[in-house]
Design goal:
three-stranded antiparallel β-sheet, alpha+beta, single chain, about 25% strand, about 170 residues, about 55% helix
Amino acid sequence: MTQDPLTLYKLIVLYMLNRVTFPLTKAQVGDFILEREYTNFLTLQQAIAELIDAGLVIAKSNRNRTHLVITDEGRSTLSYFENRINDSIKEEIDGFFNANELEMRNEVSILADYYKSVSGEYDAHLVAKEKDVTIVEITMSVPDEDTAAAICANWHKKNQDIYQYLTGQLF
């Protein structure tokens, strides 16, 4: 039986999201699929949008990142149609996660966002999580948007050093 390529791309996305215990970003999913030239960017975006519209995947946006999480309905759908994904594709996905899972988990566990507060200043909200447990959460009020954006960017680079400094000073 011939299958629609878009259906295969949707199943690959569901398989990837089901394979991990943390949200993946659209960019992480895209890196895998586009790097292997399974499809092009626009078709992948269409597949993801249709999964979201069907309630099989939830998308949560934070600034320039969109995190994807498989729903129970998505898991159920995958269990019925997983056999339509070629074993070699599953092996590539599994190998990709074996090689990159720790880095990918860290990427989605460090969150930084900023917003304008009622006082007119900007609040930079910084979070580091480990296995869905918040290990540190900081909100800093700063005078301007550029400073808030710089703090968020540096949080992604220096969160481990900052966490170690705080625990060293407080314990």
